[in-house]
Recover the amino acids of this structure.
């Protein structure tokens, strides 16, 4: 939970586990080891009242139905995104509400991983050799469009009034805009040490340098995720904060 909001519109999917309705208003924490293939995601809902919570929950519930297929079937990510978007449109028509959610998705296979995003939840990867943190995803926002057009710099986009005006998200009528994810990768296991998926509650409160410093520490991933969330809350916590930190280990390191 953020310092200002009274509800939590974020959700996450950790290889089969996500936040249920009863878990949304208290801190949610998972830690452990897993083996590929596996799937992780962060979703930041929007819509006010309970609508944002419903949107992100719908996304992770739909993801759970497709998770086994996603690492092994080529078009399964598109199938999942289409199914989630269709379900949200159905709910909006039934309940006469507006809602939507971002998606940051990591699909991990035996020797590589592929990343996907819709909206402004971000994914970073930490290179193994030089410990450099790289932002992988581009935000789907009006501010990012201005950067692409050369109207503002990336640094200016972080403070631009349009940085949260999304141009792509789940919950869009496909006749209006695109809701297809951008795809990055596959990335080689051996060249990467960690992956970070996070909602904008983290990136709005922490600079790239602050995130990079915490991610480069030798602490356990559970401590790293705690430190990221704590730092975001200490810096103001204007939104809910969700992050998933994944460390890639070889069989020998396990």
């Amino acid at each position: 939970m953020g310092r200002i909001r009274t509800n939590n519109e974020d959700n996450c999917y950790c290889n089969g586990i996500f936040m249920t309705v009863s878990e949304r208003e208290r801190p949610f924490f998972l830690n452990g080891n897993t083996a590929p293939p596996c799937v992780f995601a962060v979703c930041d809902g929007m819509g006010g009242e309970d609508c944002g919570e419903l949107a992100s929950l719908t996304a992770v519930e739909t993801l759970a139905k497709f998770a086994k297929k996603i690492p092994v079937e080529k078009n399964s990510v598109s199938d999942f995104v289409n199914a989630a978007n269709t379900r949200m449109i159905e709910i909006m028509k039934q309940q006469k509400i507006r809602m939507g959610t971002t998606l940051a998705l990591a699909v991990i296979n035996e020797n590589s991983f592929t990343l996907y995003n819709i909206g402004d939840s971000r994914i970073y990867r930490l290179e193994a050799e030089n410990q450099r943190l790289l932002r992988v995803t581009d935000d789907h926002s009006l501010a990012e469009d201005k950067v692409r057009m050369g109207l503002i710099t990336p640094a200016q986009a972080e403070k631009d009034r349009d940085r949260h005006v999304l141009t792509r998200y789940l919950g869009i009528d496909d006749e209006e805009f695109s809701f297809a994810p951008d795809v990055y990768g596959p990335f080689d296991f051996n060249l990467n040490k960690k992956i970070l998926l996070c909602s904008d509650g983290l990136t709005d409160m922490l600079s790239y340098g602050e995130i990079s410093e915490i991610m480069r520490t030798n602490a356990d991933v559970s401590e790293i995720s705690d430190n990221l969330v704590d730092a975001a809350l200490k810096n103001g916590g204007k939104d809910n904060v969700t992050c998933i930190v994944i460390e890639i280990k070889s069989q020998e390191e396990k």
Observations:
- The chain has a mean pLDDT of 91.
- DSSP finds seven helices and eleven strands in the chain.
